[in-house]
Design a protein that fits this description.
The protein has 97 residues and is of the alpha+beta class. Helices cover 36% and strands 23% of the residues. It is built from two helices and five strands; from the N terminus they run αβββββα. It has a three-stranded antiparallel sheet. Strands 1-2 form a two-stranded antiparallel ribbon. A hairpin with an 8-residue loop joins strand 1 and strand 2.
C-alpha cells in the first residue's frame, strides 16, 4: 500500500496543536490556558482564581505540581459561605410568606 503524501497521521495532526510553555487550569469548570513566566514557582488562573505550584521539566516546559492549598481552601470557603448565605436568604423569604 502506497503512502499518500497529502495526508498526515493522527500524531502529526496533534503535534500541530501542542502548546509549549503553557499549562491548563485544573479546575474542571475552568480549564483556562495559563502562561507562566519561565522560572515561576506559582501560577494563578485569572478566570477562577485558583493557584498552582509549578515544576519545570526544562526552561520552556512547565508542569503543574499541585494546588497552593491556602489559596484554594480560602476560595472554597468563600464560595461555600456565599452559597449558605443565599440558601438562608431563600429559606427566610420562603418562611416569611
Amino acid at each position: 500500500m502506497a503512502i499518500d503524501s497529502g495526508k498526515t497521521s493522527a500524531a502529526e495532526d496533534l503535534r500541530k496543536t501542542r502548546t509549549f510553555g503553557k499549562v491548563r487550569c485544573h479546575n474542571p469548570s475552568c480549564m483556562e490556558r495559563l502562561v507562566p513566566e519561565p522560572g515561576d514557582e506559582h501560577v494563578k488562573c485569572p478566570t477562577c482564581g485558583m493557584e498552582f505550584r509549578l515544576f519545570w521539566i526544562n526552561p520552556s516546559l512547565p508542569r503543574i505540581r499541585g494546588p497552593v492549598w491556602d489559596v484554594n481552601r480560602k476560595l472554597a470557603q468563600e464560595r461555600l459561605a456565599a452559597l449558605e448565605k443565599a440558601e438562608a436568604a431563600k429559606k427566610a423569604k420562603k418562611g416569611g410568606k
